[in-house]
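Curious: why these numbers?
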Amino acid sequence: MGWTVIGNGMLDLRRLEMLLEVARTGSFAGAAESLTFTPSAVSQQMCALERAAGMILFERSARGVRLTAAARTLRDHAQDVVTRLADAYTELDGMSEHNDTRLRFGSFSSATGSFTADAFCIFGARYPDSELSFSDGEPYETLAQLAGNELDLAVIFQLEEWPTEVDYRGVAACRELELECVPLFDDPYLLVLPADHELALHETIALGQLGDVPILAAAPWHRDLEKVCSDAGHRPVLDFSCRATGFEALQALVAAGRGVSLMPRLALGWLRRDLVARPIAGAPVRHVQAATQAAKNRSSASQAMLEILIALTASRGLSSNNRAHPSRDSGLNLDHVELRSKDIELVGAVRPD
Protein backbone atom coordinates (compact mmCIF):
# COMPACT_ATOMS: atom_id res chain seq x y z
CA MET A 1 0.00 0.00 0.00
CA GLY A 2 2.83 2.41 0.92
CA TRP A 3 4.52 2.00 -2.45
CA THR A 4 1.23 2.57 -4.28
CA VAL A 5 0.58 5.82 -2.39
CA ILE A 6 4.08 7.08 -3.11
CA GLY A 7 4.03 5.92 -6.69
CA ASN A 8 0.78 7.63 -7.63
CA GLY A 9 2.09 11.05 -6.58
CA MET A 10 0.31 11.40 -3.23
CA LEU A 11 3.61 11.87 -1.40
CA ASP A 12 5.31 14.03 -3.98
CA LEU A 13 7.12 16.41 -1.62
CA ARG A 14 6.77 19.38 -3.95
CA ARG A 15 3.00 18.95 -4.07
CA LEU A 16 2.77 18.57 -0.30
CA GLU A 17 4.73 21.79 0.18
CA MET A 18 2.42 23.54 -2.28
CA LEU A 19 -0.60 22.23 -0.39
CA LEU A 20 0.79 23.71 2.83
CA GLU A 21 1.30 27.08 1.15
CA VAL A 22 -2.21 27.03 -0.32
CA ALA A 23 -3.56 26.27 3.15
CA ARG A 24 -1.46 29.06 4.67
CA THR A 25 -2.29 31.76 2.11
CA GLY A 26 -5.83 30.70 1.20
CA SER A 27 -5.32 30.80 -2.55
CA PHE A 28 -3.32 29.35 -5.44
CA ALA A 29 -2.11 32.86 -6.30
CA GLY A 30 -0.83 33.42 -2.76
CA ALA A 31 0.99 30.10 -2.76
CA ALA A 32 2.46 30.88 -6.18
CA GLU A 33 3.80 34.22 -4.96
CA SER A 34 5.35 32.63 -1.89
CA LEU A 35 6.95 29.76 -3.82
CA THR A 36 7.88 31.86 -6.90
CA PHE A 37 5.72 29.76 -9.24
CA THR A 38 2.98 30.89 -11.58
CA PRO A 39 -0.61 30.48 -10.32
CA SER A 40 -1.34 28.12 -13.21
CA ALA A 41 1.59 25.88 -12.20
CA VAL A 42 0.28 25.66 -8.64
CA SER A 43 -3.24 24.97 -9.92
CA GLN A 44 -1.95 22.15 -12.13
CA GLN A 45 -0.01 20.55 -9.28
CA MET A 46 -3.00 20.76 -6.94
CA CYS A 47 -5.22 19.17 -9.60
CA ALA A 48 -2.65 16.38 -9.87
CA LEU A 49 -2.73 16.00 -6.09
CA GLU A 50 -6.52 15.70 -6.19
CA ARG A 51 -6.27 12.98 -8.83
CA ALA A 52 -3.69 11.12 -6.75
CA ALA A 53 -5.86 11.41 -3.64
CA GLY A 54 -8.95 10.35 -5.54
CA MET A 55 -11.14 13.01 -3.94
CA ILE A 56 -11.87 16.74 -4.00
CA LEU A 57 -9.45 18.73 -1.89
CA PHE A 58 -10.47 22.33 -2.63
CA GLU A 59 -13.65 24.36 -2.76
CA ARG A 60 -12.91 27.04 -5.32
CA SER A 61 -14.39 30.55 -5.29
CA ALA A 62 -13.63 34.00 -6.66
CA ARG A 63 -11.86 34.90 -3.42
CA GLY A 64 -9.59 31.86 -3.35
CA VAL A 65 -9.91 28.28 -2.17
CA ARG A 66 -11.08 26.52 0.97
CA LEU A 67 -9.74 23.17 2.07
CA THR A 68 -12.18 20.29 2.28
CA ALA A 69 -12.12 17.90 5.24
CA ALA A 70 -9.95 15.52 3.19
CA ALA A 71 -7.51 18.32 2.39
CA ARG A 72 -7.28 19.35 6.02
CA THR A 73 -6.42 15.79 6.98
CA LEU A 74 -3.79 15.60 4.24
CA ARG A 75 -2.45 19.02 5.29
CA ASP A 76 -1.87 17.85 8.86
CA HIS A 77 0.00 14.76 7.70
CA ALA A 78 1.91 16.79 5.10
CA GLN A 79 3.07 19.17 7.81
CA ASP A 80 4.39 16.21 9.81
CA VAL A 81 6.20 14.83 6.75
CA VAL A 82 7.79 18.15 5.81
CA THR A 83 8.77 18.90 9.41
CA ARG A 84 10.38 15.49 9.92
CA LEU A 85 12.32 15.78 6.65
CA ALA A 86 13.50 19.28 7.56
CA ASP A 87 14.59 18.07 10.99
CA ALA A 88 16.45 15.15 9.42
CA TYR A 89 18.22 17.48 6.99
CA THR A 90 19.20 19.85 9.79
CA GLU A 91 20.54 17.01 11.93
CA LEU A 92 22.54 15.52 9.05
CA ASP A 93 23.79 18.96 8.06
CA GLY A 94 24.98 19.49 11.63
CA MET A 95 27.11 16.35 11.38
CA SER A 96 29.01 17.75 8.43
CA GLU A 97 32.46 19.26 8.98
CA HIS A 98 31.49 21.84 6.34
CA ASN A 99 28.87 23.16 8.76
CA ASP A 100 31.53 24.36 11.23
CA THR A 101 33.20 26.68 8.70
CA ARG A 102 29.98 28.07 7.21
CA LEU A 103 27.88 30.94 8.51
CA ARG A 104 24.65 31.96 6.79
CA PHE A 105 23.65 35.09 8.67
CA GLY A 106 20.36 37.00 8.58
CA SER A 107 19.22 40.35 9.93
CA PHE A 108 16.54 43.04 9.61
CA SER A 109 17.22 46.43 8.00
CA SER A 110 17.55 48.78 10.97
CA ALA A 111 19.78 46.27 12.77
CA THR A 112 21.87 45.90 9.61
CA GLY A 113 22.41 49.64 9.49
CA SER A 114 23.26 49.82 13.19
CA PHE A 115 25.47 46.83 13.97
CA THR A 116 24.95 43.52 12.10
CA ALA A 117 26.75 44.62 8.93
CA ASP A 118 29.76 45.43 11.11
CA ALA A 119 29.44 42.11 12.94
CA PHE A 120 29.34 40.27 9.61
CA CYS A 121 32.51 42.00 8.40
CA ILE A 122 34.27 41.47 11.74
CA PHE A 123 33.52 37.75 11.50
CA GLY A 124 34.81 37.62 7.91
CA ALA A 125 38.06 39.36 8.86
CA ARG A 126 38.61 37.11 11.86
CA TYR A 127 37.77 33.89 9.99
CA PRO A 128 38.90 34.49 6.38
CA ASP A 129 38.60 30.81 5.47
CA SER A 130 34.95 30.60 6.43
CA GLU A 131 32.11 30.47 3.91
CA LEU A 132 29.91 33.50 4.56
CA SER A 133 26.56 34.72 3.28
CA PHE A 134 24.23 37.48 4.44
CA SER A 135 20.47 37.99 4.06
CA ASP A 136 18.48 41.08 5.06
CA GLY A 137 14.72 40.85 5.54
CA GLU A 138 11.83 41.09 7.96
CA PRO A 139 11.99 38.77 11.02
CA TYR A 140 9.23 36.51 9.70
CA GLU A 141 11.22 36.09 6.46
CA THR A 142 14.43 35.16 8.25
CA LEU A 143 12.55 32.78 10.55
CA ALA A 144 11.19 31.06 7.44
CA GLN A 145 14.77 30.79 6.17
CA LEU A 146 15.85 29.31 9.50
CA ALA A 147 12.98 26.83 9.26
CA GLY A 148 14.10 25.85 5.77
CA ASN A 149 17.72 25.47 6.90
CA GLU A 150 18.73 28.36 4.65
CA LEU A 151 20.23 30.35 7.56
CA ASP A 152 22.30 29.35 10.57
CA LEU A 153 21.74 32.42 12.71
CA ALA A 154 19.58 35.54 12.43
CA VAL A 155 19.08 38.75 14.35
CA ILE A 156 15.34 39.30 14.77
CA PHE A 157 13.02 41.31 16.97
CA GLN A 158 9.99 40.24 18.95
CA LEU A 159 6.99 42.28 20.04
CA GLU A 160 4.68 41.45 22.92
CA GLU A 161 1.47 41.45 20.86
CA TRP A 162 2.59 40.21 17.41
CA PRO A 163 4.02 36.71 16.81
CA THR A 164 7.38 36.95 15.07
CA GLU A 165 6.57 34.20 12.56
CA VAL A 166 3.46 36.06 11.32
CA ASP A 167 3.87 38.43 8.38
CA TYR A 168 2.42 41.94 8.36
CA ARG A 169 -0.74 40.75 6.62
CA GLY A 170 -1.41 38.45 9.58
CA VAL A 171 -0.44 35.23 7.80
CA ALA A 172 1.92 32.70 9.39
CA ALA A 173 5.07 32.68 7.29
CA CYS A 174 6.52 29.46 8.66
CA ARG A 175 5.89 26.59 11.03
CA GLU A 176 6.67 26.89 14.72
CA LEU A 177 10.38 26.43 15.33
CA GLU A 178 12.41 24.98 18.14
CA LEU A 179 15.05 27.68 18.24
CA GLU A 180 17.07 29.31 20.95
CA CYS A 181 16.68 33.08 21.10
CA VAL A 182 19.53 34.89 22.86
CA PRO A 183 18.51 38.38 24.10
CA LEU A 184 20.70 41.22 22.83
CA PHE A 185 18.90 44.42 23.89
CA ASP A 186 15.56 46.23 23.94
CA ASP A 187 14.83 48.77 21.22
CA PRO A 188 12.13 51.25 22.33
CA TYR A 189 9.80 53.06 19.96
CA LEU A 190 10.07 56.86 19.96
CA LEU A 191 7.49 59.42 18.93
CA VAL A 192 8.53 61.17 15.71
CA LEU A 193 6.90 64.54 15.13
CA PRO A 194 7.55 67.89 13.42
CA ALA A 195 10.14 70.02 15.18
CA ASP A 196 7.61 72.85 15.54
CA HIS A 197 4.92 70.64 17.11
CA GLU A 198 3.88 71.71 20.61
CA LEU A 199 4.77 68.29 22.03
CA ALA A 200 8.33 68.66 20.72
CA LEU A 201 9.02 70.96 23.68
CA HIS A 202 8.79 68.02 26.08
CA GLU A 203 11.80 65.79 26.82
CA THR A 204 9.53 62.79 27.46
CA ILE A 205 5.90 62.47 26.41
CA ALA A 206 3.19 60.69 28.39
CA LEU A 207 0.66 58.64 26.45
CA GLY A 208 -2.16 60.82 27.70
CA GLN A 209 -0.51 63.90 26.19
CA LEU A 210 -1.12 62.51 22.71
CA GLY A 211 -4.80 63.37 23.03
CA ASP A 212 -6.47 63.26 19.63
CA VAL A 213 -3.24 63.71 17.65
CA PRO A 214 -3.45 61.27 14.69
CA ILE A 215 -0.76 58.60 14.79
CA LEU A 216 0.31 57.02 11.52
CA ALA A 217 0.15 53.36 12.52
CA ALA A 218 1.13 50.08 10.89
CA ALA A 219 1.73 46.42 11.58
CA PRO A 220 3.39 44.94 13.48
CA TRP A 221 3.70 47.52 16.30
CA HIS A 222 0.19 48.97 16.33
CA ARG A 223 -1.14 46.23 18.62
CA ASP A 224 1.55 46.93 21.20
CA LEU A 225 0.70 50.63 21.10
CA GLU A 226 -3.00 49.88 21.56
CA LYS A 227 -2.16 47.63 24.52
CA VAL A 228 0.05 50.12 26.38
CA CYS A 229 -2.46 52.92 25.71
CA SER A 230 -5.30 50.76 27.00
CA ASP A 231 -3.30 49.95 30.14
CA ALA A 232 -2.75 53.71 30.63
CA GLY A 233 -6.42 54.51 30.09
CA HIS A 234 -5.81 56.32 26.81
CA ARG A 235 -7.48 55.65 23.48
CA PRO A 236 -5.15 56.66 20.63
CA VAL A 237 -6.30 57.99 17.27
CA LEU A 238 -4.67 55.59 14.82
CA ASP A 239 -4.46 56.35 11.10
CA PHE A 240 -3.94 53.23 8.94
CA SER A 241 -4.39 55.04 5.62
CA CYS A 242 -0.67 55.19 4.80
CA ARG A 243 1.49 52.17 4.02
CA ALA A 244 5.24 52.42 3.62
CA THR A 245 8.06 49.96 3.04
CA GLY A 246 10.62 52.09 4.87
CA PHE A 247 10.87 54.55 7.72
CA GLU A 248 12.06 57.28 5.33
CA ALA A 249 8.59 57.36 3.77
CA LEU A 250 6.95 57.63 7.19
CA GLN A 251 9.26 60.51 8.07
CA ALA A 252 8.22 62.32 4.88
CA LEU A 253 4.52 61.88 5.74
CA VAL A 254 5.08 63.19 9.26
CA ALA A 255 7.03 66.17 7.92
CA ALA A 256 4.22 66.89 5.45
CA GLY A 257 1.77 67.20 8.35
CA ARG A 258 -0.20 63.97 7.99
CA GLY A 259 0.30 63.12 11.66
CA VAL A 260 2.93 61.81 14.07
CA SER A 261 4.28 58.27 14.17
CA LEU A 262 6.30 55.81 16.21
CA MET A 263 9.67 54.54 15.04
CA PRO A 264 12.19 52.30 16.81
CA ARG A 265 15.39 53.83 18.05
CA LEU A 266 17.52 51.68 15.73
CA ALA A 267 15.72 53.13 12.70
CA LEU A 268 16.53 56.73 13.64
CA GLY A 269 20.20 56.80 12.79
CA TRP A 270 19.03 59.23 10.11
CA LEU A 271 16.30 61.73 11.00
CA ARG A 272 15.10 64.65 8.89
CA ARG A 273 16.16 68.06 10.18
CA ASP A 274 12.54 69.21 10.36
CA LEU A 275 11.60 66.33 12.68
CA VAL A 276 12.43 65.39 16.26
CA ALA A 277 12.14 62.09 18.15
CA ARG A 278 10.96 62.01 21.75
CA PRO A 279 10.76 59.10 24.23
CA ILE A 280 7.27 58.01 25.29
CA ALA A 281 6.68 56.84 28.84
CA GLY A 282 5.66 53.17 28.64
CA ALA A 283 6.22 52.99 24.87
CA PRO A 284 6.22 49.68 22.96
CA VAL A 285 9.58 47.93 22.78
CA ARG A 286 11.19 45.61 20.24
CA HIS A 287 13.12 42.81 21.93
CA VAL A 288 16.14 42.32 19.67
CA GLN A 289 17.48 38.77 19.78
CA ALA A 290 19.76 36.36 17.98
CA ALA A 291 17.86 33.26 16.85
CA THR A 292 19.81 30.09 16.23
CA GLN A 293 19.72 26.34 16.64
CA ALA A 294 19.67 25.07 20.22
CA ALA A 295 23.11 24.99 21.81
CA LYS A 296 23.50 21.22 21.36
CA ASN A 297 23.11 21.60 17.56
CA ARG A 298 24.80 24.98 17.14
CA SER A 299 27.92 25.16 15.01
CA SER A 300 31.04 26.79 16.42
CA ALA A 301 30.74 29.40 13.65
CA SER A 302 27.31 30.41 14.98
CA GLN A 303 28.67 30.39 18.52
CA ALA A 304 31.48 32.73 17.51
CA MET A 305 29.06 35.11 15.79
CA LEU A 306 26.85 35.15 18.89
CA GLU A 307 29.79 36.29 20.96
CA ILE A 308 30.68 38.99 18.43
CA LEU A 309 27.10 40.27 18.45
CA ILE A 310 26.95 40.41 22.24
CA ALA A 311 30.31 42.19 22.55
CA LEU A 312 29.48 44.60 19.72
CA THR A 313 26.06 45.64 21.04
CA ALA A 314 27.48 46.05 24.54
CA SER A 315 30.33 48.25 23.26
CA ARG A 316 27.86 50.56 21.51
CA GLY A 317 25.68 50.95 24.57
CA LEU A 318 22.73 49.17 23.00
CA SER A 319 22.51 46.51 25.71
CA SER A 320 22.68 48.93 28.64
CA ASN A 321 18.90 48.74 29.17
CA ASN A 322 18.54 44.97 28.82
CA ARG A 323 15.94 43.30 30.99
CA ALA A 324 18.40 40.45 31.41
CA HIS A 325 22.06 40.23 30.53
CA PRO A 326 22.46 37.93 27.49
CA SER A 327 25.58 36.21 28.74
CA ARG A 328 23.71 35.03 31.83
CA ASP A 329 20.63 33.96 29.87
CA SER A 330 22.44 32.11 27.11
CA GLY A 331 25.26 30.46 29.03
CA LEU A 332 27.86 32.09 26.77
CA ASN A 333 31.33 32.66 28.18
CA LEU A 334 32.43 36.16 27.22
CA ASP A 335 35.58 36.30 29.33
CA HIS A 336 37.79 35.75 26.30
CA VAL A 337 36.19 38.52 24.22
CA GLU A 338 37.98 41.86 24.50
CA LEU A 339 37.39 45.19 22.79
CA ARG A 340 40.63 46.81 21.71
CA SER A 341 39.28 50.10 20.38
CA LYS A 342 36.16 52.06 19.57
CA ASP A 343 36.38 50.59 16.09
CA ILE A 344 35.17 47.30 17.60
CA GLU A 345 38.19 45.22 16.69
CA LEU A 346 37.78 41.96 18.56
CA VAL A 347 40.75 40.05 19.86
CA GLY A 348 40.86 36.53 21.19
CA ALA A 349 37.40 35.48 20.02
CA VAL A 350 36.70 31.77 19.82
CA ARG A 351 37.52 30.37 16.41
CA PRO A 352 35.50 27.62 14.76
CA ASP A 353 37.13 24.28 15.50
Observations:
- DSSP finds eleven helices and 13 strands in the chain.
